[in-house]
Design a protein that fits this description.
Elements lengths: L1 E6 L2 E5 L5 E5 L2 E6 L5 E4 L6 H4 L2 H5 L4 E9 L3 E20 L2 E14 L11 E9 L5 E6 L8 E4 L1 H17 L1
Antiparallel strand pairs: 1-2, 2-3, 3-4, 5-6, 6-7, 7-8, 8-9, 9-10, 10-11
């Protein structure tokens, strides 16, 4: 995918087949061109991903976020609750380098009965933040229990983090 636009705090990524992911602070908040699209999320300003700082990441305690979601195919007004917790520190090997991260796990639950039969009403998302900078470097997100997982790796952020680390080491 290529970053097509940055507008009003949203990063809009487009694929070769014209599908689009719209992200805010690393969270997919809307999709276009998929079999089932996420059309709307309420209360995005309360998303804990928007207010995690390195201090919060290091002393992670439970955070909760409640919102409503609409999907294409007449799926409207589903109340969803997420509980965030620390998955601990992990080292990712990306671009032939070890990236030290803190994993944040989001446990997600539907609170209302779905309009259609669903095999499950809960799922997990995963967000890896680089320890020193606090930047999100990777995520695995499932938008709903009836979607496929989307794995996002922010190679340009990782390259900038690695370049900054090399500059720091050289200047010492």
């Amino acid at each position: 995918m290529a970053l097509a636009y940055i507008e009003a705090g949203q990063h809009k990524w487009i694929s070769g087949d014209q599908a689009m992911l719209i992200l805010e602070q690393g969270r997919i908040v809307r999709t276009l061109g998929l079999a089932t699209n996420l059309d709307y999320l309420s209360d995005k300003s309360s998303d804990p991903l928007k207010c995690f700082s390195m201090h919060i990441l290091q002393t992670m305690s439970q955070h909760t976020w409640t919102r409503k979601a609409d999907w294409s195919n007449d799926e409207y007004g589903y109340q969803i609750v997420s509980n965030f917790s620390s998955g601990g520190e992990q080292t990712l090997n990306i671009l032939s380098a070890n990236i030290h991260t803190r994993l944040i796990v989001e446990d997600i639950n539907y609170l209302a009965q779905a309009n259609f039969i669903r095999p499950k009403s809960s799922w997990k998302n995963y967000f890896w933040f680089e320890i020193t900078s606090g930047q999100l470097v990777q995520s695995i997100q499932l938008l709903s229990p009836f979607d496929e997982q989307l794995e996002l790796v922010y190679l340009s952020r990782i390259a900038r983090i690695l370049a900054a680390d090399k500059n720091t080491q050289v200047n010492l």
